[in-house]
Design brief:
The protein is of the alpha+beta class. The protein contains 8 helices and 15 strands. The strands form 3 sheets. An 8-stranded mixed sheet has the order 4-3-5-6-7-8-9-10, sandwiched between helices. The chain has a 5-stranded mixed sheet with strand order 12-11-13-15-14, with helices on both faces. Strands 1-2 form a two-stranded antiparallel sheet. The protein starts with 10 loop residues before the first helix and ends with a helix. Bound molecules: 6-O-phosphono-alpha-D-fructofuranose (P6P). The site of 6-O-phosphono-alpha-D-fructofuranose has 8 residues, from loops. One of its GO terms (molecular function) is magnesium ion binding.
Length: 353
């Protein structure tokens, strides 16, 4: 019989297993002050939302009334999945009685949702896409949640949350939860990008990697080439280039979080360009492209609309969309070079008329 004192767990293993998200936030901020405690508590509640959503996804196929459509359309004009509604409500519920988050702005809600009991003191706003890529839910492929945290500016007396219509550099934290073979939470407070893996046996997100850096270049280009004929000529030029040059490979899942995670870890570029019909693109700025841009830039990558850095875009409305070119700096700049080349050619043609 081994004496308990003889069971030696290497300190680094025990320390890793004890590096929960809330502890990591305090380490990141090197503070136990009130703001650090607030952010630690907020991240802990986001983690709870991730656990609840992960649990439901893992059993969705065995439960009644979890999969499929609600029959409603959201403010985006998209058919709403039952899982979209559940996840949206989970994020609201985990912040009730928190005193932290006064407002939540979601892809699924036309207006921000206010939690009255929190608003007298809560100075934080959560912006989120509760389930991104929900088309994948019914076929058991990866989906994700995307989130950003901002400080409320002003009193928002008219309940229109106009202070959210500012650029992405106002985000104080951002990240995503990837519901894949394991459930991962990736986040940044502006001090690097760090990943956590949900250990179901503990019910905790445990630190898996710190200071993730995106490779300067990668072989992957990730885009829906079915839209080729709707793209501007510059994006078609880029697509022809990667078709004709060795060293590129296409990967596209139709779910943004998984596609971005692949790019973050292996390098490359994700594109959801504007089209002639929809120049503003499909993806939403405040709770999709801006949080991901914050994260990828923290990892040493780049994120633009193709002509403007995502983090500089100032939205005119809550659900504003932007084109997105994001990933390894070298690969994003290659896409931008085709856009700039077309602009030069178009200007030259106009000047010669
Ligand atoms: P398409 C999912 O609907 C989503 O918002 C993102 O997750 C994904 O990257 C994109 O739309 C897929 O759009 O037009 O390629 O099906």
């Amino acid at each position: 019989m081994t004496n308990p004192e003889q069971i030696v767990v290497p300190e680094h293993i025990l320390d890793r297993d004890c590096t929960t998200l809330s502890r990591h936030v305090l380490q990141q901020l090197q503070s136990f002050g009130p703001e650090a405690q607030d952010l630690s508590a907020i991240m802990n509640r986001i983690a709870l939302a991730g656990k609840l959503i992960s649990r439901r996804l893992s059993r969705a196929g065995l439960m009644v009334g979890v999969l499929g459509f609600t029959g409603e359309e959201n403010v985006q004009g998209e058919s709403v999945k039952k899982m979209d509604v559940y996840a949206n409500e989970v994020f609201i519920s985990v912040f009730k009685q928190s005193g932290l988050v006064c407002r939540l702005a979601s892809e699924e809600m036309e207006k921000p949702y206010y939690i009255p009991e929190n608003c007298p003191i809560g100075r934080y706003t959560l912006l989120y896409d509760p389930i991104d890529g929900s088309a994948n839910v019914d076929i058991n492929l990866n989906v994700g949640s995307i989130f950003a945290i901002r400080q409320q500016e002003g009193d928002d007396l008219d309940g229109e949350a106009k202070d959210l219509l500012t650029n992405g550099r106002k985000q104080i934290a951002a990240g995503y939860i990837l519901y894949g073979p394991s459930t991962m939470l990736i986040y940044s407070l502006g001090h690097g990008v760090h990943s956590f893996i949900l250990d179901p046996s503990l019910g905790e997100f445990i630190l898996s990697e710190e200071n993730i850096k995106i490779p300067g270049h990668g072989p992957v280009y990730s885009t829906n080439e079915g839209n080729f004929w709707q793209w501007y000529e510059a994006i078609r030029d880029y697509t022809r280039y990667v078709h004709r040059h060795d060293g590129y490979t296409a990967r596209y899942s139709g779910a943004l979080v998984g596609d971005i995670h692949r790019i973050l870890m292996q390098g490359g570029v994700f594109l959801y360009p504007g089209t002639v019909k929809k120049p503003e693109g499909k993806l939403r700025l405040l709770y999709e492209t801006a949080p991901l841009a914050f994260l990828v830039e923290q990892a040493g990558g780049r994120a633009t609309t193709g002509t403007e850095e995502i983090l500089d875009v100032i939205p005119s409305k809550l659900h504003q969309r932007t084109p997105l070119v994001i990933g390894s700096t070298e690969d994003v700049k290659l896409v931008e070079s085709f856009i700039q080349d077309r602009i030069r050619r178009d200007n030259s043609t106009m000047n010669n008329c």
